[in-house]
């Protein structure tokens, strides 16, 4: 849950999810269009893919080069906090919904 929350509140990751929802994009396209450093873009894409939030499809370019294209799997994300609990609900492109719950633990004196 912590990794999911971190990525859903990361500015670069949210931009990537938004830009790759309507049309799949390569990492280079995302980096250029969003003004995100390419290394940061690849790191976010790796985490997003690991969590199942983006899908990748590899294609061969006209020049014979393999290029990966990424597509957001999230249609909608809702984060709510109530009674010392946090809930994340993800509605995926296929219509399925996933809910994650966690208790909020605050650290003091750090």
Key traits:
alpha+beta; elongated; Arc Repressor Mutant, subunit A; 110 residues; three-stranded antiparallel sheet; 36% helix; 6 strands
Molecular structure report:
With about 110 residues, the protein is an alpha+beta fold. The protein has one domain: Winged helix-like DNA-binding domain superfamily/Winged helix DNA-binding domain (Arc Repressor Mutant, subunit A), CATH 1.10.10. The chain is about 35% helix and about 35% strand. The strands form two sheets. It has a three-stranded antiparallel β-sheet with strand order 1-3-2. A hairpin with a 2-residue loop joins strand 4 and strand 5 (about 85-90). The longest helix has 13 residues, at about 40-50. The protein is elongated.
Summarize the model shown:
It is built from 4 helices and 6 strands; from the N terminus they run ααβααβββββ. The chain has 110 residues and is an alpha+beta fold.
How many helices in DSSP terms?
A: 4
> CATH H level: which superfamily?
Winged helix-like DNA-binding domain superfamily/Winged helix DNA-binding domain
Backbone CA Rg:
16 Å
Q: Give the number of domains.
A: 1
Order of helices and strands: HHEHHEEEEE
Protein structure class: alpha+beta
Strand order in space, largest sheet: 1-3-2
Mean pLDDT: 91
- Give the terminus-to-terminus CA distance: 22 Å
CATH class: Mainly Alpha
CATH architecture label name = Orthogonal Bundle
Q: Percent of residues in helical segments?
A: 25-40%
**What is the CATH fold-level name?**
Arc Repressor Mutant, subunit A
Strand content: 35-45%
Topology, number of strands: 6
Major sheet characteristics: 3 strands, antiparallel
- Globular, elongated, flat, extended or rod-shaped: what is the shape? elongated
The residue ranges in which pLDDT falls below 50 over 5 or more consecutive positions are none
């Amino acid at each position: 849950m912590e990794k999911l929350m971190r990525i859903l509140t990361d500015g670069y990751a949210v931009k990537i999810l938004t830009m790759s929802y309507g049309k799949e994009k390569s990492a280079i396209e995302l980096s250029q269009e969003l003004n995100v450093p390419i290394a940061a873009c690849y790191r976010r894409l790796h985490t997003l893919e690991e969590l199942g939030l983006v899908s990748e499809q590899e294609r061969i370019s006209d020049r014979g080069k393999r290029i990966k294209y990424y597509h957001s799997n999230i249609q909608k994300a809702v984060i709510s906090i109530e009674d010392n609990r946090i809930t994340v609900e993800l509605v995926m492109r296929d219509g399925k919904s996933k809910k994650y719950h966690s208790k909020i633990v605050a650290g003091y004196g750090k």
